[in-house]
Amino acid sequence: MTATEQSQTLVGIGVGRGIAIGRVLRMPDPLPEPATTPSTIGPDSERDRVTAALQATGADIRERGERAGGKAQEVLEAQALMADDPTLRSEIDTRIDNGATAERAVHEAFGGFRDMLVGLGGYMAERAADLDDVAQRIIARLSGVAAPGVPESDEPFVLVARDLAPADTALLDLDKVLALVTSDGGPTSHTAILAREKSITAVVGVVGARELVDGTDVVVNAGSGEVVVAPSADDVARAEQARAAQLNRASVPIGPGQLADGTAVPLLANLGSTDGIEGALAAGAEGVGLFRTEFLFLDAGSSAPTVAAQYAHYSKLLRGFSGKKVVVRALDAGADKPLPFLNDAHEENPALGLRGLRALRAAEQILRDQLTALARAASESDADLWVMAPMVSTVEETRYFVSLARELGIKTAGVMVEVPSSALLADRVLGEADFASIGTNDLTQYTLAADRMLGSVSSFQDPWHPAVLRLVGEVGRAGSAHGKSVGICGEAAADPLLAVVLVGLGATTLSMSPSAIADVRAELRQHTREQAVQLAQAALRADDARGARDAVNSLVAELASS
Amino acid sequence: MPERTVVVASAHGLHARPAALFTQAASKAGVPVTITKGDRGVNAASILGVISLGIDHGDEVVISVDGEGADSVLDELTELLTTDHDA
What we know:
By secondary structure, chain A is of the alpha/beta class. Helix content of chain A is 48%, strand content 14%. Chain B has one domain: 2-Layer Sandwich (Histidine-containing Protein, Chain: A), CATH 3.30.1340.
C-alpha cells in the first residue's frame, strides 16, 4: 500500500459477518480452449514441446506433493502419474501426427479420458476434476501462461476469483485463506455455501472484483458486504477493532439460543443424513429443524426404500436426539432431482413442476410408507417427532397432508412455506397445520422469479429482499395469532444478522447447518426482542436487499452506541 | 503369455492411491503388463487406463505379463492387488 493510492470500496453480498484484512491473490481464470488451427511447426517439434511440458508439469506436481505431504501428496502423486501416462501420450501423439498443435492435442486427449470418467459416474466422475487440473497445467505451460487453479502462497491471503468450483475448494488450503471475494455468484453459490460451512469471511458477487490485482491490500467486511481496496491506516485500525470485538463475542458458551432479554429462540440443525448427528450435538443443536430424507431414496436405486429400511434410519436419527425435537421433511423430489419411481418425466420448468408434495400425492403409496415408518420409529422413541410436507402451495394441500399424517399416526404435522401463495394465506394454512417452517431459498426463488440454479440471475437470490421478508412476516404473524411454531430452515437462518431480523418478523426457531450455530447464537444474545422487531421494520422499509442490509447494519450500530 | 486371475482387495477398489501404487509397480517392471477386467484390457502402466476400468472391491481382474521375469512380476503385482490399501 502506498500513500498515494486512494482507497476504494467495492460492494457485493456478504456471507456471515466476518472481517478480514489481507493481501489479494487471484485465482487465474480458466484457460480458453486451444484453437483447432493446424500446427505450423510440424509434428516433430510439437512432440518435443509436449515431452518437455509433460516432464516439467509432472515434476512440478511431484514437488508440490512433497511439500504438502500426507493425503494431499497421494492425490498429487496420482496426478503426476497422469502427466506421465503412456496411453495418454499415444493419444496425444496420434493427434499431433494428424496435424494438431501440442495444446490442442493435449486438450483433446485429456478430454477423451475425462468424458470416460464422467460416464463412469460417482467417485470416478469426481476424479475428472483432477484430470482437468493436470490438463490445464500442461496447456498453461505450453502456452507460457500462469497455471489456473487455486493459487499457492506461504503467506495467508484473500482469495479473489470469478467463482469457486467444488474441485477448487477441495484443493484449497483453508488455513491460508483469510477471506473469499468473488465477482460472480450469489448467496447460494458454491463459494457462499463453502464459506458458511467453514465459517470463512466472504463477499460474493462483488462488482469490480475482476479488476483486483495480486498483492493489493484489502479489508473484507462480510457484515456490510464491502471490500475496501487499498485501505487507509484508519480503515485497517477500525477493521482490527471490529474483528477483535467479534472474536470476543464468538466465545459465547454453548447453550440454548436466546435473545438479550432471555426470549428463547431454539437453534436447530439441518441434517441430510444420520452421519451428522454427532457434529450437530457438539455444536449445541437443540434438535433438528430440517432432516432431509432424499438420500434414503437416492441411495435406494430403482425402487423406493421399504418401510423397514426407512424405519431403521429414522430410529437411528431419533435415538441421536433423545428428548429433543426432530423435524423430518417428507421426500422432496421433482424433475430437478428425479427418482425413477416418483417422477422422471421431462419438464421445461422443474421448479414449477410436479415436485414436493405434488409428486408425493401423485405417488401416494411412497408418502404413506414414509409416514408409516416415521410413526413407528417415533412410537418407540422419546424424541419429539414433527413431520412436514415440502412445497405446499394451497390450504387444500395442507389439509390433505395433515389428515393423512394423522391417519398414519404422526402426532405433529406441518408444512414448509416455500411458495408465496402459502405465505400469503399463512393464517389459513396455520389453521390446518400444527406448524410451519419457511424454506427461504425456495421462497426467494419463487418470490423473485429467479431460478436458484441459474448463475445469470443469482443476484436476485437474496433472502434480505424486503418482498421475501414481508412474506416471512405474514407467516410470523399467523403463527403468533394461532400460537403455533414458525421455523426457518433455509440458508437465511445461518446469516447471523438476518437471523435476528427473522426473529423480529416472528420466527420462533432457527435451523441451519451445525457450523453456523455458534455465530447465530452469539448474535442473538446482542439484541432484545424489541430491538429485533425494530431491525425487522427497518429491513421492511427498504427498497431492495442491499438497502435492507444497510438499514439493519446502521440501526445495529446506532442501537449499540445509544 | 503368463497371466493370473486376481480378486481386488482394496475396500474402494482400484481407484486413486491403490491405482497409483499398482501403476507405478507395473511401469517399474520394465516389461509390458496388461490388466483386463471383463473383455477390456489396458496397459497396466497407464493410470488413466487402469482407472477407466472402474475396478471395484471384489472385482476379478486378469494380469498378464510379456517378457523376462514374468513370474516374479506377477507375484509382486498379485500381492499389491490382494492387499487392502484402503484399510
